[in-house]
Amino acid sequence: MLDVAPTELLLVAVVALLVIGPKDLPKAMRFVGKWVGKARGVARQFRSGFDTMIRESELAEMEKQWAAENERIMREHPPTPSLPAPQPEHFAEPAVDSDPVMVEQPMLLPEDGGEAAPKPKPKRVRKPRAATPDEPQS
Predict the structure, then answer these.
(1) Cβ–Cβ contacts within 10 Å for residue 29, how many?
(2) Three state DSSP letters for the chain
(3) How far, in Å, CA of 46 to CA of 41, rounded?
(4) What does the pLDDT look like over 60-77, one tens digit per residue?
(5) Which of 50, 57, 67, 85 has the fewest CB atoms lying closer than 10 Å?
(6) How far apart are CA 17 and CA 25, in angstroms?
(7) Which residues lie below 8 Å from residue 110, measured CB to CB, with a gap of 6+?
(8) How many Å apart are CA 54 and CA 45, to the nearest integer?
């Protein structure tokens, strides 16, 4: 990239001030800024296009490697046609001699054998409302 030292930049600014003059210097700086912005935009677009091409070529190469590895694995471990294809569970018929399925959680009883009683909710105690100066106290 460009290596511009601060002293070189200061020298260019002084020469531009002397050659262009203080009256036309803002216009010249605006003009140079527009062209620098356009050049940066073109460079950014070129770089993004180049990066996209590299990424696509890397993906294509990786796909070739994966296909070759998959082919090697399939040669080493051929599929066995003797096994039946697995069926999804929602299409399978239920087994006749299967154990019952528990649906609800069992209710636990106390150890003394009595029936479990639900615990009472604690009562909410209301605080007395503070009297305001306008209200009469009762």
Answers:
(1) 13
(2) CCCCCHHHHHHHHHHHHHHHCCCCHHHHHHHHHHHHHHHHHHHHHHHHHHHHHHHHHHHHHHHHHHHHHHHHHHHHCCCCCCCCCCCCCCCCCCCCCCCCCCCCCCCCCCCCCCCCCCCCCCCCCCCCCCCCCCCCCC
(3) 9
(4) 999 999 999 999 998 998
(5) 85
(6) 7
(7) 116
(8) 14
Read off the tokens for 34: 């527009």
- Size (the chain), residues: 138
The residue that leads in pLDDT, 100 or 35, is 35
Number of neighbours of residue 36 by Cβ within 10 angstroms: 10
Residue 91 in tokens: 């299409």
What is the C-alpha to C-alpha distance for residues 52 and 65, in angstroms, rounded to an integer? Answer: 20
- pLDDT tens string 69-98: 999 998 998 877 666 666 666 655 655 666
Taking the mean position of all CA atoms in its chain, how far away is CA 30?
40
d(CA 56, CA 66): 15
pTM of the entire structure? 0.40
Sign of CA dihedral 10, 12, 14, 16: negative
